[in-house]
Amino acid sequence: MADPIFNAHLGRIFLTRAWIFQAIIASPAMIIYGGVAFFAVFDGSYYTIYDFVMYLCESILAAGIIFIVLIQRQLKPASLRSESGKRLTVYFEAAKALLATALWLWALIDAVLTRDNYYHRSERRIAAAGIAFIVLVLFWYPTVAYSIYSLNTHSVEEEEAEDRGQEAAGAATGQGERQPLLGNESV
What we know:
This protein has helices spanning 4-42, 49-74, 77-81, 83-113, 122-139, 141-152, 156-172. With 187 residues, it is mostly helical. α1 runs antiparallel to α2.
């Protein structure tokens, strides 16, 4: 039987690496959409108000994903092992998945409903929305599913294995349940 402590540790490693990859995926979207929104403000001859609002909102959604990843990276690994830490991870993962889904839906609706012109072909936009859907399914939803799984399977085996590890550490140092915590001081 697999060691539950090892599995939990491996799961936390998976989550932290997935967070980094999510930030790497969201960074170009934030930079490109933010840059186009910036240019849309000053070039009124080509861009419409809708273009400005669309690119600004998409860059804000991507920035929200990066912001959540930065908050998650600042959390202490020990706090992620507790019940409240796992619940917080579920909330963060759900928020990131919601932001990524909103970004994808906006791109899909924009691809379907926007008129074609020389620069904005609906075929390219639909292809981009399809690629975004694949990225969404591969890199955002699995982290939500794993964090929910981790929250629901904080099992008795894991707690017992942690207790055994603490008892073994106490036995190795000569400390046990019957030993006073402050040494040989008598009260």
